[in-house]
Amino acid sequence: MPETATLVTDTELLEQHVAQEYKAGFVTDIEQDTLPPGLDEDTVRFISAKKAEPEWLLEWRLKAYRDWLEMKEPTWANIKYDPIDYQSISYYSAPKSASDGPQSLDEVDPEILATYEKLGIPLQEQKFLAGVAVDAVFDSVSVATTYKDKLAEVGVIFCPMSEAVQEHPELVKKYLGTVVPRNDNFFAALNSAVFSDGSFVYIPEGVRCPMELSTYFRMNALNTGQFERTLIIAEKGSYVSYLEGCTAPMRDQKQLHAAVVELYAHETATIKYSTVQNWYPGDVETGKGGIYNFVTKRGIAAGRAAKISWTQVETGSAITWKYPSVILKGDDSVGEFYSVAVSKGWQQADTGTKMIHVGKNTTSTIISKGISAGNGQNTYRGGVKILKSADGARNFSQCDSMLLGDKCGAHTFPYIDVQNPTAQMEHEASTSKIGEDQLFYCNSRGIDAEDAVSLIVNGFCKEVFKELPMEFAVEARKLLEISLEGSVG
Amino acid sequence: MSLLEIKNLHVGVKDAKILKGVDLTVNRGEVHAIMGPNGSGKSTLALVLAGRDTYEITEGEILYKGEDLLEVAPEERAREGLFLAFQYPVEIPGVSNVYFLKAALNAIRKHRGQEELDAMDFLTYVREKMALVKMDETLLNRPVNEGFSGGEKKRNEIFHMAVLDPVLAVLDETDSGLDIDALKIVADGVNSLRSEERAFIIITHYQRLLNYIVPDVVHVLLDGKIVRTGGKELALELEEKGYSWLEGEVHEEAVAHA
After folding, report:
1. CATH assignment at residue B31
2. Whole-complex ipTM
């Protein structure tokens, strides 16, 4: 077909072009490499070529792009925002140059610094988070190398997605898009077409990953960009706990973030995925700016007794549209979703989960805690589907909302679809206003309003925090405290 | 100087007048009982002392340690040694009793210029106090008042009091809903805390509690006013004759004044 031939030629040309650049000093040149705003097939080809991707992946991206063109942005979520102009976004920019950012901490917004201080973030790390130019050699590189060696010893692969495409193409090809198909939804299709980078994790059979992944790498994740793509594969009998995000507010100029995360758990494998998300929520007074966080996260518990557990603490972003889900395909498989979502200022969160029971005796648990303050709107949207094949399936859902103040809102949309009469479903929901009585009770014991709110809210979220790895849990508690400062009293 | 002086206190909620000129003086070392029927304003008085802002003080003043108490925030009052044992203790889901108390005690200690207690020292201290009210250790780690029985909640209030070591403790109907064994435990707890430095205001419906906690002074609150003050024998007289005995008198007085 002549058209395809042209395609290949274009790609080859691009590849040659890239190779030339490399000869001419690729490292310096790539820093200026930013595509002008706009999205068409050439954009997709450029990105793929830039990453020297194999043909099949380019084709995959292009199919996703063509699917995306046919798709409509979803409107069913309980969120409001001005239309996004997808042609005004630049879809490729090389890793950020140090000269872009502030040159020292003195140039960073004092308010952000104060938050870092409260969170107890070490100075060196503060610089990274604030995007300050730092020396080429820093502690975490050596730390990272040490841990990489340790992981390699047990056969765990943990690397950027772009590296996995080069080093482990057979794995990427086998699994990419198997959990979240490239045309799953509008944002997933966009991500599939233009994804920048992300993490790739592979845990071999019977291996228990010797450490929580990404704790030591969180700074490295900063430049993965707005279209992140992550794939985690756990072979039979393996275990991995993956941590994403950071409690510190991050500097980012890009408003739209559309990530995709796919988890694949084989027989008796467990994947635990924890997120703390604190992107810029926009101006507290006006709601201006702020990140649109439109994420597709899904795991498949494919084999017998496989387990996937999502835990998220969402305090940032202007808009959160996110439903980490589990397909419970294997018999006896387990799906869990633990969530704390905070909406304050003008933030809007529409988040929840989907549990799709396919296998027999599958079990899912949903614990969702929504907190609204200021003018924030918090929506829980959850679906539990029990298919005909899922004999003896069980679900427990608990959705609690807490309101701080009288201008915020909490909304709950549970969807339940049971096609098998042996299913056992339990659903509990509550909405409470942070009680005047509770506050006064604390006050009458000598505890001031600020501490009382943090005490009450942390108590409210306890069931979720206890699912987080220890270190993360401590940070998440502090983060919540800081997020809700001044919300009451 | 008296520890607490309430002068001509008038309190209302919206349009309803609840307290209509209460006078009360409490000195260190004294135990005062305030008795009265439902709706006489007993709990309002307790909550106003603790600083609940849903009430409007329309007239009068309250001096605590010689200072204007009404100007002080509720948490500051607590740190200055004022304690209220709630009639309806509040549940705080997910917050363990021990964690809550540690936060409270350390807030108070900080205010007093004392060093904050760490977890180990606090536990040692708390175990001592638990013995006072024969509290089961499991109640320490359960969320504050959540799932507690009525009796457990009331005992927990006395336990909080023992831990926070107040100067003026106000007990709002702590005896209601207690069986006789629990009542004795609560009374023993209070009696063990009686001292020259500390004063108590015990609000109760019934004379029963006063068999175990013998008051120095008994006041009768009727329709927002203290209509009678006497010694401990006043409680017995009330038990015998009922509140209607005083209601009649008040009525006669009112007629006489008219």
Report:
1. 3.40.50.300
2. 0.94
Distances (CA, A) of B127 to B132, B162, B194: 9, 11, 20
Query: How many Å lie between the alpha carbon of A442 and the closest alpha carbon of chain B?
Result: 8
Q: List CB contacts of B2: < 8 A, sequence separation 6 or more.
A: B25, B26, B27, B63
pLDDT tens digits in sequence order for chain A, 489 residues long = 333 334 444 445 444 443 333 222 222 233 336 777 888 998 899 889 888 999 999 999 999 999 999 999 888 888 888 888 888 887 876 555 445 556 676 766 666 666 666 666 666 666 655 555 443 333 334 445 567 778 889 999 988 888 899 999 999 999 999 999 999 999 999 999 999 888 899 999 999 998 888 644 443 344 445 788 999 999 999 999 998 876 555 555 567 888 999 999 999 999 999 988 887 777 777 767 778 889 999 999 999 999 999 999 988 888 888 999 999 999 999 999 999 998 888 888 899 999 999 999 999 999 999 988 888 888 899 999 999 999 999 999 999 998 888 888 888 899 999 999 999 999 988 887 777 889 999 999 999 988 898 899 889 998 898 898 877 787 788 888 777 776 664
As a residue count, chain A comes to 489
Of A445, A456, A458, the CB nearest to B104: A445
> For residue B79, which residues of chain A lie inside 8 Å, CB to CB?
446
Q: How far is B91 from chain A (nearest CA, A)?
A: 7
| A442 contact B CB<8A | yes
Q: Domain residues of chain A, as ranges?
A: 1-30+435-489, 32-322
Chain A residues touching B78 at Cβ < 8 A:
443-446
CA A129 centroid distance within chain:
17
Quote the strand ranges of A246-317, DSSP E: 256-257, 260-265, 270-277, 292-301, 307-314
B92 and A448 within 8 Å at the Cβ level: the answer is no
B129: containing domain? 4-257
A456 touches chain B (CB under 8 A): yes
Residues of B with CB under 8 A from a CB of A: 50-52, 54, 73-75, 77-79, 83-84, 86, 89-95, 100-101, 103-105, 107-108, 111, 143, 160, 164
Query: Domain total for chain B?
Result: 1
Query: B-chain residues within 8 Å CB-CB of A449?
Result: 75
| Interchain pair B104, A447: CB under 8 A | yes
Q: What is the CA radius of gyration of chain A?
A: 23
A446:B160 CB<8 A: no
**A436 lies within 8 A of chain B by CB:** yes
With CA atoms as reference, the chain B residue closest to A449 would be B75
Interchain contact, B108 vs A446, CB within 8 Å: yes
How many Cβ contacts (< 8 angstroms) between chains A and B?
A: 78
